Design the sequence.
């Protein structure tokens, strides 16, 4: 190809290197000059033009792109017409994009003039979605290079770009049960996994629940294997940590095989792939309860498309397997101890606090419950004093527009942010509070203003448990297996928390990131008790007097027999101050 400045009297057949505006029209890049267009250019006073003249061994860009595309495109791929050296490929149906990555790399390494760009292999797609583009770098491909590319593709003997459509599969979901798990966990698991399956074209799954017991699970899987099932998903009540654990052991007990345990995808490390009587069996990781993309999706999509998946396929998921920004996960066997787990001094954490106090507190009648007193101190005062005594490095209080709660704060050195529209839901208060957290803070503890039993030691236990280096990113207090408040969140979740609406608050964020939640055992039930009724207020006062606490005491209030506090992890309105 001769790419140079061509005299106009020798420019017939030359392809323009750049667009030229002439006589109210534009001659685009790649336009082939003829006598008419040469005369128009000459009328502008030009004597030469920059462009390319193809030689006998050059294949025009459109023809070369079309030939490469025809060789690469496989089943269920729609090919657009070649234009300016480019051909686009589109999905003709819903399904899984399969790209022969070694072949595409080989093609792109042959000659710089021939380029192929594709979606990543194993990408779920909709019909009509663009899959790839073949582009010849202007204005032609050298014939020897083109022939080498076509020969390389032919030797492979298979299409490099295809769609494996979703099949209508019959699937079963087995959930194993442990006594401490709440019913809502099973409901969310069934909803999340069922929605995935149906999105991939499967029928509504058969759902069974059995105890987290090797024998009972083996019996359930054996029964399902006698049915016309294509896929069995087992969502365990606890993570699979070894091939001798309940789920893989139950599978092998009935003649199944464990193909692979563990995958280099995060989140989704603790996944099991197995086979039983020709059926795929997936031991789902805990993150499968979340609707967010995780490693479970990659394996499930292969199965739904009828594509083979073996141990080495899972091993190859590692490149591109980091699906989101996460810290290291704590080991499943590790106890949720609030103390340090590494040698050497523990890092001093910069953790802030956000006290939510914008509710009108009207369930108890006027005045706002937060200004009512226990042992001579406003309800909100007990929470603020505990926070100020703790190792929290900063504190923000979010109140409503009324002045009584702000007056009850007194002279305590805490900034106040006003939520002018508490009726919009506590998510707005949460968003306002997080927005006020200092830039240097690594995390924030979200406190409820109507829990006077919370003390500095509760807060300091959460701060001690927080360790982003060990994947301890959300710290939830627990007493005798029940989760409560307050809760600590790493800063990386602030944006997601601030995007919540209504009264959901941080509940959905915890559910979506259970893999980085650490449960921190607390010494008493103060994390479960809020003040919502006159009876609860009187009981807290009586309990304090029974222990001989002086008025306005700085000591933590004893736990009174109150209704359980709305938990950030489970309540539909975790920061309700009404």
Sequence:
């Amino acid at each position: 190809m001769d790419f140079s400045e061509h005299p106009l009297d020798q420019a017939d057949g030359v392809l323009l290197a750049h667009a030229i505006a002439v006589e109210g029209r534009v001659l685009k890049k790649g336009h082939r000059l003829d006598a008419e267009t040469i005369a128009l250019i000459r009328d502008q006073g030009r004597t030469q033009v920059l462009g390319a003249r193809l030689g006998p061994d050059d294949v025009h860009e459109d023809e070369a792109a079309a030939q490469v595309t025809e060789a690469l495109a496989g089943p269920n791929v729609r090919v657009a017409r070649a234009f300016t050296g480019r051909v686009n490929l589109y999905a003709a149906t819903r399904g899984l994009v399969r790209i022969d990555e070694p072949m595409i790399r080989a093609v792109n390494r042959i000659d710089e003039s021939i380029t192929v760009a594709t979606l990543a292999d194993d990408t779920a797609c909709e019909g009509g979605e663009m899959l790839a583009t073949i582009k010849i770098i202007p204005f032609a491909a050298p014939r020897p290079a083109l022939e080498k590319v076509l020969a390389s593709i032919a030797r492979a003997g298979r299409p490099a770009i295809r769609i494996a459509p979703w099949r209508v599969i019959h699937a079963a979901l087995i959930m194993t049960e442990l006594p401490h798990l709440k019913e809502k966990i099973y409901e969310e698991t069934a909803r999340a996994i069922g929605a995935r399956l149906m999105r991939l074209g499967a029928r509504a799954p058969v759902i069974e629940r059995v105890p987290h017991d090797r024998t009972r699970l083996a019996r359930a899987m054996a029964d399902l294997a006698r049915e016309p099932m294509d896929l069995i998903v087992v969502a365990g009540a606890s993570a699979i940590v070894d091939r001798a654990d309940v789920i893989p052991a139950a599978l092998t007990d009935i003649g199944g095989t464990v193909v692979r345990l563990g995958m280099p995808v995060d989140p989704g490390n603790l996944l099991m792939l197995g086979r039983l009587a020709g059926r795929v069996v997936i031991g789902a990781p805990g993150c499968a309860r979340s609707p967010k993309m995780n490693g479970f999706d990659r394996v499930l999509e292969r199965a739904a498309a009828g594509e083979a998946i073996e141990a080495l396929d899972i091993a190859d998921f590692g490149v591109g397997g980091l699906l989101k920004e996460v810290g290291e996960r704590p080991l499943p066997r590790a106890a949720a101890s609030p103390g340090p787990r590494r040698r050497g001094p523990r890092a001093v954490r910069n953790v802030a606090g956000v006290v939510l106090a914008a509710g009108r507190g009207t369930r108890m009648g006027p005045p706002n419950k937060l200004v009512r007193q226990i042992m001579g101190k406003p309800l909100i005062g007990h929470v603020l004093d505990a926070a100020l005594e703790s190792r929290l490095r900063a504190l923000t209080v979010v109140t409503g527009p009324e002045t009584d709660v702000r007056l009850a704060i007194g002279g305590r050195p805490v900034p106040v942010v006003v939520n002018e529209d508490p009726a919009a839901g506590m998510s707005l208060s949460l968003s306002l509070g997080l927005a006020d957290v200092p830039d240097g803070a690594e995390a924030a503890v979200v406190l409820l203003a109507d829990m006077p039993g919370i003390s500095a030691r509760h807060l300091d236990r959460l701060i001690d448990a927080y360790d982003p280096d060990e994947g301890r990113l959300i710290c939830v207090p627990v007493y005798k297996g029940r989760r409560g408040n307050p809760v600590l969140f790493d800063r990386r979740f602030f944006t997601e928390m601030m995007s919540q609406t209504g009264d959901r608050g941080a509940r959905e964020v915890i559910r979506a990131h259970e893999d980085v939640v650490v449960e921190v055992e607390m010494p008493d039930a103060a994390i479960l008790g809020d003040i919502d009724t006159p009876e609860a207020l009187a009981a807290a006062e009586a309990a304090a007097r029974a222990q001989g606490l002086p008025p306005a005491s700085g000591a933590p209030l004893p736990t009174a027999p109150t209704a359980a506090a709305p938990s950030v992890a489970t309540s539909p309105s975790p920061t309700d101050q009404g």
About this structure: The first strand starts at residue 2 and ends at 7. The radius of gyration is 32 Å.
